Amino acid sequence: MILGEKKFVEIPGQATLDLPPLLVNDAAQMRRLDRIVELANRLIDREDLVPAVTRDHVLTEEDMERRKMDLALNLVEMYCAVNRHWHWGDGILEWIRQCEITFEAKSDLRRLLRPDVWPHASRSSFVTLLEDKHVPMDGIDIEKAVGLRLTFRHLPPLSDFSDQFLFYLNNRLANTAYKTWCEMTPAPVSALPPERFNVQVVTM
What we know:
By secondary structure, this protein is mainly alpha-helical. It has one domain (2-203). 50% of the residues lie in helices and 7% in strands. Strands 1-2 form a two-stranded antiparallel sheet. A hairpin with a 2-residue loop joins strand 1 and strand 2. The longest helix has 44 residues, at 61-104.
């Protein structure tokens, strides 16, 4: 079936299938923000991000500390966003794995799966399904979330990230990873009809 520019797979019957719940550790915020702020301060000192002399004047020690704190808080905020997106991506990839098990158990759905290597590029249709069903994600960019999880098997601590990554590179890197993953899907690319599936998100 073709609707607009999107082609959907044909699924026999009219019944609606309940897919496994999408479990997300959305409360995966840092347990000790004071420790994260400390790591951010170390990153700022290591990279010498706040120069003592600007074009206009020499900074006082008080100005230096204030600028360092502002920058540290910005880095922590950026890292928290990366942390949250990564955990959503981790939940989505595990959900795709559970959906595979569900599809394998049903003869009329088994044929829709392709036997490629995990994480299966052809399974990007499950991500498209989440988008088509407008699953509530509270500000999460689903492609960035999956891209970050494809990039990092385990989320590195803040101290392993550069300030350049947190401020400029994480969006581009994640989106590129997701796009590359999707483009590996063998043709023809077909979407799953959203009206035939129920998806429940459970945040933990």
